[in-house]
Amino acid sequence: MNENNRPVLAVVGATGAVGTVMRDVLSTREDVWGEIRLVASARSAGRRLTVRGEEIEVRELSPEVFDGVDIAMFDVPDEVSAEWAPVAVERGAVVVDNSGAYRMDPDVPLVVPEVNARAVRQRPKGVIANANCTTLSMIVALGALHAEYGLTALRASSYQAASGAGQEGVDTLHDQLNKVAGNRELGTHPGDIRRVVGAELGPFPAPLALNVVPWAGSLKDDGWSSEELKIRNEARKILELPDLRVSATCVRVPVVTTHSVAMHVTFEREVNAVRASEILRDAPGVVLYDDPARGEFPTPADVVGTDPTWVGRVRRDLDDPRALELFVCGDNLRKGAALNTAQIAELVAAELSA
Amino acid sequence: MNENNRPVLAVVGATGAVGTVMRDVLSTREDVWGEIRLVASARSAGRRLTVRGEEIEVRELSPEVFDGVDIAMFDVPDEVSAEWAPVAVERGAVVVDNSGAYRMDPDVPLVVPEVNARAVRQRPKGVIANANCTTLSMIVALGALHAEYGLTALRASSYQAASGAGQEGVDTLHDQLNKVAGNRELGTHPGDIRRVVGAELGPFPAPLALNVVPWAGSLKDDGWSSEELKIRNEARKILELPDLRVSATCVRVPVVTTHSVAMHVTFEREVNAVRASEILRDAPGVVLYDDPARGEFPTPADVVGTDPTWVGRVRRDLDDPRALELFVCGDNLRKGAALNTAQIAELVAAELSA
Ligand SMILES: NC(=O)c1ccc[n+]([C@@H]2O[C@H](COP(=O)([O-])OP(=O)(O)OC[C@H]3O[C@@H](n4cnc5c(N)ncnc54)[C@H](OP(=O)(O)O)[C@@H]3O)[C@@H](O)[C@H]2O)c1
Ligand SMILES: NC(=O)c1ccc[n+]([C@@H]2O[C@H](COP(=O)([O-])OP(=O)(O)OC[C@H]3O[C@@H](n4cnc5c(N)ncnc54)[C@H](OP(=O)(O)O)[C@@H]3O)[C@@H](O)[C@H]2O)c1
């Protein structure tokens, strides 16, 4: 704690896609922090980055950077979190981890403050996990509907942005756009986009410009991708519904930031679209934007850079009175990563300062 | 008929997005036609366009262009088909219509040759309808699975290409790409893409470059779009399953041509992914491309310009042994429009020549 009883925060991975947005989030939300330390790899040590209007020198990740730190946010790859979160805990910090390393650990709570804030206090390992960005893009809206109607099944098809694959994903998409723009013949013959884009596919398994790619993450059993199973496992854990029926198809689209998800959701009770819309409109962290007659439905271009989960296209299934169809958008770097992490960290900060 | 017993064909709308691909399809498939007449509006009359290697002058739509015509393909807006198809029939032609004007008419068969070829002969009005491009992108694969397992429900989320909105859609996407390319700040702040793209949205209700837009078609009851209801109504009619449970969310993506659909399909009987994949692999008009370990799944960039429906990501639902999850791609201008029309016309040509 600083002398003014404010917790000391470390941001590990401050230079990445999530870390960059985290610095913005920390600079614009109500400031509850004492000192903020920025940490990354040796590659970035010494760079000066801005947070809360102050320039701060990036420090190389080491055990000592955690000395005196109350809360450490980890916005780094899985294996870096797996190795270094225990080090931070040992030095006395509570870790809020954005990677996939701890999410399904039974001793680590997986927290979305609008849905299960109280889970934050059960953290036997001193680590709290932040959900995957695709899960986070929809879970706040789902949680609100679940509280009213009782969720039984979720079918989700995603439209995931390039930045979900980190800064390299963003750079790859922009590079490819530069190559395809201005060529009006493209997108007509098989393989012409591959030829123009060339071998530089970055983190994606196929060209992303002028294309959609039905793959994200790594291959798991029976043809499922890791990203699809994350949605299933994380939704079950956050909603405390271990038997929830979930199937997802994750697809990458040529959008820079903001994931969208088309959802078909089934409930225990009958639903109606008007009441469901009221629930969504009143839910904290949700914006209902749903008037197609006036051209109102969420799109990534409008949602990017904002905090809430935006929901539109709310319709009751035409055959099943217990099912809803909806379309949601959420900024994968804000609510999908940095914002949710900041919200969790603020809950812990309030607890520590109390 | 020409003297050599070959039917005379008119292509109405020969200058449009579908008409352009139709000329290519007619130039590359086995040639069963006598004379081919190209027809469009007064705007295009006199233009010289190529089909089967011959240059032909475009004629203005009039009753007389149908004199001596055996089969007339209509690749024009709904209202033009509604007005002019009866004229062509009266002059003795069988009409194969690509518009939405006749699809749900009980006296007009809705034909996908791989699924219901025999329906072509019941045409009391002399008109045969071609299905909507989104329906056509998936129905051949669905039909093959239905024959084996008995379809009970379809949940579909589409990733629809710009050319589904005609040549204006393609031009709009290319124009917008030119404006956004090279600007690496874009896609980070709300509204920045709208600002750069400006007011020229073409046939789309929001910017399409670096965005996805959960809307296609016009507004129907209870918030459904016409495009979503077409999938429902046309799938039911083609598969002769009037009570099939269908719900769809249609989303436009920044792809030039080739629609993709993520499908969650439920059957009467238990399914297994290996057998389902064999059925798809052996189905006429379907290519199974499904080996994620080797980076094999269909994407629009690879599928565009090809004839079949490409299927990948075949997985059995993890909770429901009677459900499959899959991802399909089909060229919306080929199988989704021109190719299917040509296949229907060839069935009629064979009948007339017999
Ligand atoms: N992008 C999203 O939408 C999203 C959403 C939710 C969760 N996440 C998760 O958040 C984490 C970060 O993702 P990102 O998208 O921000 O990735 P990114 O853009 O690739 O950034 C990675 C960050 O980790 C740092 N780093 C890498 N290796 C390191 C090491 N050995 N020691 C110290 N720092 C190291 C990098 O620092 P240098 O600059 O020094 O290399 C950089 O700051 C990942 O676990 C990701 O799965 C991402
Ligand atoms: N695009 C697809 O993926 C797709 C798929 C399946 C079905 N369809 C349907 O196919 C039809 C054509 O679509 P498209 O995408 O090719 O549209 P498009 O690119 O806008 O082309 C429209 C065509 O119709 C002609 N036309 C318009 N008004 C006319 C009139 N009053 N008299 C004579 N010709 C007229 C145009 O000729 P001018 O050049 O003279 O204006 C042009 O050839 C539509 O009904 C559409 O719904 C489209």
Description:
The first copy, chain A, contains ten helices and 14 strands. Helix content of chain A is 32%, strand content 20%. In chain A, helix 1 packs across helix 10 (334-353) and helix 4 (133-149) packs across helix 10 (334-353). The radius of gyration of chain A is 21 Å and the shape is globular. The first copy, chain A, is of the alpha/beta class and 354 residues long. The first copy, chain A, folds into two domains: 9-130 and 337-353, Rossmann fold (3-Layer(aba) Sandwich); 135-161 and 212-330, Dihydrodipicolinate Reductase, domain 2. The structure holds NADP nicotinamide-adenine-dinucleotide phosphate (NAP) (2 copies). The site of one NADP nicotinamide-adenine-dinucleotide phosphate has 29 residues of chain A, from helix 1, helix 2, helix 5 and helix 10.
Ordered list of secondary-structure elements with their pairings:
The structure is a homodimer of 354-residue chains.
Chain A: E1 9-12, H1 17-28, E2 36-40, E3 48-51, E4 54-57, E5 59-60, E6 71-74, H2 78-90, E7 94-97, H3 113-116, E8 127-129, H4 133-149, E9 151-159, H5 166-180, H6 192-197, H7 226-238, E10 245-249, E11 259-267, H8 273-282, E12 286-288, H9 300-303, E13 309-316, E14 323-330, H10 334-353
Parallel strand pairs in A: 1-2, 1-6, 2-5, 6-7, 7-8, 9-10, 12-13
Antiparallel strand pairs in A: 3-4, 9-11, 11-14, 13-14
Helix pairs in contact in A: 1-10, 4-10
The complex binds NADP nicotinamide-adenine-dinucleotide phosphate (2 copies).
